[in-house]
Every structure is written in C-alpha cells, then in structure tokens.
C-alpha cells in the first residue's frame, strides 16, 4: 500500500477496478471520515452514517469494474453516498410507518403475540445466557449498532458481534429443534378448530 500513497484518486480507481485490495483500502482510509461527515448532515446520527458509508464502499467494491470509467472520484463517491443515504432514509421511514401501523392495530398485535410460532422464538431468546440475550435484544429490538451496544455494556464492538453470532446460532438451533413439535401443534389446532364445526 505504501507505493500507492503518491497515487491520485483516479489512479487508485483504476487499480481498484482491476481488483487491487490495497488500493481500495487506501481509498477507504482517504475518504471514509469525510463521507461519514457528509452523510451525517442528512441522518443526524453517527452510527447510521457509518453504516451507510460502509455500505457505500461495499457497493463500490462489488461493482469495481465500472470504476475505470469514473473521471471525478470525489464527486462520484459523494453521489453514491447521497443516493445510498436517500435509500436508507426511505427504508427507515417505511419501517417507522409499519411500526406505527402495528401500534395502532392492537388486535393484530394480540394475534401476533398469541401465535405459537412467536412463543417458540421467545423461548429461544429466553434460553440465551443473560449478556448474550441483552446484546441480542438491544440489536434486534433496540436497533442499536454494535458500537452503541458496546459502549452501553462496556465491552468491545468485536465482543458484541461475537455475542450476536452465537445468539443467532443458538436461536436458530432452538427453533429447528422445536420445529416438529410446533408443526404438530399447528396441525392439531387447525384440525381441532375444523372439528368443532361439526358439533
């Protein structure tokens, strides 16, 4: 990477287009903070902005073959960042609207809470070790980033990520182990409900 320090942006883009990871890493380090600051003007959230910029660089790497045609690197990066931010904010708005709809429909919420499938998921979460359960709930329900969770629990983001990986594996295994029992129960419930119609 040291040899690339004198490369201008367009030269780096050409190297990245050829799959050069060192050049990509240098471009990332060169523009990451500036792009986070740019995105944060729209999101007003540092964690959300960091996530968006990471997605931007992932997208750039996945479509790196097109970089050879880029002539103005900084303008290109900011344009991609702006588009990604707009998409992320639209998605967030849709999720917030969906959450409001659920809150305004208590009957639907009650039906969801009574669904035996959700009881299995709740049991899967309840059997997690205390800290792993806390991390899982903060990430999935609280929608906090690994960095935010780490700060609140006084652990590293890497440790938070490990807890999440183990939690997801454990919850998935629990659900699979109980899948047959759940299917049998649902079949019985459907059969029993139908049978009542004949009495």
Automatic annotation (TrEMBL):
Q: What is this protein called?
A: RNA polymerase sigma factor
Which superkingdom is the protein from?
Bacteria
Boundaries of every RNA polymerase sigma-70 region domain copy: 27-94
Cytoplasm among keywords: no
> Known InterPro entries for this protein?
RNA_pol_sigma-70-like, RNA_pol_sigma-70_dom, RNA_pol_sigma70_bacteroid, RNA_pol_sigma70_ECF_CS, RNA_pol_sigma70_r2, RNA_pol_sigma70_r4_t2, RNA_pol_sigma_r2, RNA_pol_sigma_r3/r4-like
Q: Does the keyword Cell inner membrane apply?
A: no
> Which keywords belong to this entry?
DNA-binding, Membrane, Sigma factor, Transcription, Transcription regulation, Transmembrane, Transmembrane helix
PROSITE patterns per the UniProt record, alphabetical: SIGMA70_ECF (PS01063)
What residues form the membrane-spanning segments?
A: 166-189
Organism for this UniProt entry? Chitinophaga chungangae
UniProt lists the family membership as follows: Belongs to the sigma-70 factor family. ECF subfamily.
The residues covered by the RNA polymerase sigma factor 70 region 4 type domain are 121-168
Q: Which PANTHER family match?
A: RNA POLYMERASE ECF-TYPE SIGMA FACTO, RNA POLYMERASE SIGMA-70 FACTOR ECF SUBFAMILY
